[in-house]
Amino acid sequence: MSPQKEALLNYCIALGDDALTLGHRLSEWCRNGPFLEEDLALTNVSLDFIGRARMFYSHAAEIEGQGRSEDDIAFLRDCREYRNFLINELPNGDFAFTMARQLMVDAFDMGFFTGLAKSGDPMLAAIAAKAVKESRYHLRRSQDWIIRLGDGTEESHERTQNAFNQLWGYAAEMFEMADEEQKLVDAGIAVDRSALKAEWTSTMHAVLKQATLAIPTDDWAIGGGRDGRHTEHLGFLLAEFQYLQRAYPGQQW
Amino acid sequence: MNQQNLPLFEVFIRSSRGLDHRHVGSLHAEDPAQALDYARDVYLRRSEGVSIWVVRSSDITASQESDVESFCEPMDDKPYRHATHYKLPKEVDNM
């Protein structure tokens, strides 16, 4: 496999991992939502992300051409082989935490997939074009919720502020580029994520301001997801997610 | 959040261009904007339509069962209000 092909394979898997981990986290809200309508909405969003993961993994499987399927990629890799940003694997916390994380990811996704829709890889461009439409709706929802919660009661304000304070440092790695990815950018395939930070920051500032929330300080940052270095939470997520295929390999229903 | 405190909204969906909006059900939401978002998630998951209306259920003024007599029944003895009451000239094949 040429270095560029391998880089593209890793790129697709990383994007699939981002979508799958967050999609799985959101699916944990199923039947636990604050009320019926929101429960349905959250699981709809979850399915959007899981659908994205499937598309990225099947594209990866096709690039690899070694007979691995999208399911093999999802179910038969361990923590160190997962390449998602850490923010996606963090436990849901309370509803404010889930929506604060969602806003940070949705605002990033809007910029990212708008860029990826112009990718020289036609399949990536097509997946991204679909994702942009979904993310526009996701962002509308998360923005709306953050403004409601931040500018809501004393308790909802405090919980939402705490959530952003706990999450803020996880944003940094979304804008850090690795060499391999930079080469894909030069080849017109990948998106230069470092260039997305300014717009992301201005979106976040505008929403937080309207939500009467303070912008958290930039004095800490955690990364490593793209290198396979994860929080302790991913192992538990995968244990639940992969249990069936690990215990009964190849099981179908 | 307590669902009991959330106002009820009625949802109307237009299934395709040119057709009327039809009542499809109701849902709870904080305000009309949120009701519109939820209507999308609850009633438009399978491309059921191209346009959504939501209206606060409390804003609908509805006729009551007791109104039936005065609202609806008097029409029965006024057959001339129906087109079928009139004999059509032979030249008109169909109405």
Descriptive account of the structure:
With 253 residues, chain A is mainly alpha-helical. Chain A has a single domain (3-247), classed as Ferritin, core subunit, four-helix bundle (Ferritin), CATH 1.20.1260.10. Chain A has 10 helices and no strands. The longest helix of chain A has 29 residues, at 36-64. Chain A is globular. With 95 residues, chain B is α+β, with helices and mostly antiparallel strands. Chain B has a domain at 1-60: Ubiquitin-like (UB roll) (Roll), CATH 3.10.20. Chain B has a 3-stranded antiparallel sheet with strand order 2-1-3, covered by helices on one side. The mean pLDDT of chain B is 86. The A-B interface holds A 34-38, 40-41, 44, 137, 140-141, 144, 148 and B 1, 3, 6, 27-30, 33-34, 37-38, 40-42, 45.
List the helices and strands and how they pair.
The complex is a heterodimer of chains A (253) and B (95).
Chain A: H1 3-27, H2 36-64, H3 70-75, H4 86-89, H5 95-116, H6 122-150, H7 154-167, H8 179-186, H9 197-210, H10 233-247
Chain B: E1 8-14, E2 21-28, H1 32-43, E3 51-56, H2 68-71
- Regarding CATH, which class of chain A? Mainly Alpha
Oligomer: heterodimer
- How many domains comprise the coordinates of chain A? 1
Tell me, briefly, the overall form of chain A. Answer: globular
Q: Summarize this, please?
A:
The complex is a heterodimer of chains A (253) and B (95). Chain A is an all-alpha fold.
